[in-house]
Amino acid sequence: MRVPSTQALRALEAFARHGTVWQAAAELNITRSAVSHQLRFLEQDLGFALLQRAGKGVSLTAQGKRYAADVRTALALLADAAVQYGDRGLLQGAITISSTPGFATFWLCTHIAEFRQLHPGVTLRIVTPSRLEDVDAPGVDAFIAYGDGDWPRHSVELLSVVDFMPVCSPALLNQLGGLSEPVDVFRTVLLHLDGLGDWFTWLSAAGVVAPRTDQGVIFSDMNLVLAAALAGQGIAIGDNFVCRQAVETGRLVVPFDLTIRASRAYYFVTPRDRPGNPAIEAFADWLKSRLVQTAPVMRL
Question: What are the HTH lysR-type domain coordinates in residue numbering (predicted)?
Fold first, then answer.
């Protein structure tokens, strides 16, 4: 038996992961017909059936599934070897990271040059999702997601818990003559992120009975919330990642000592059915190490 072609093995791995010919073709940037031909040629080379009819489509046989799993492992080993023995011994590759807008703007973008200095051979693409908890966007290798950590089909690592607190500009605080009691926040505009829950939770924890949080301005993006707060348009609920730099430089102030632990947190999430990627592993190691050095030390 001759050794199967790499193209055929990649077609099998992509088909096994996606379950459809058209998705495998889209990932490999070839036609559906080309994927089907590669799978048929692979069956001929191997001498056993990889595919079986399933309704109007096809699926892997039991033996095909086992072989595809071995192929995935083998391709990952080849990728590791290419990195290990590549030009100048540098880590090579291109990866796409999805990050929540606030984390990307106020943390990732202020530290990303450090990763590039460590791994200049890695091309990094940063995208932002439409939903903070989105971990299924196509074409994304890993996600910095904000949620409850319940993503069963993914590998999930906790990056950091999140603490919330009110923040506003120094100019607004002076204009108001200070804020003595939590209920004083109603003397200005409440700035919300996608709903009223964060303000309600903080005000309730501060002892405000039946707080009315159905006023103010609601934004769909944390960047917009912070932009409005920095411009003195109201008072926002910020967190220890998004607001850290602005607080440390004096562009935002924290008028109250009370912080609350969020029920959700930041996680590093990767699909379990993807082959191992040394560049993703290097990014995850750098991210976790850098967060340990920066995020926990914020004192407001």
Answer: 4-61
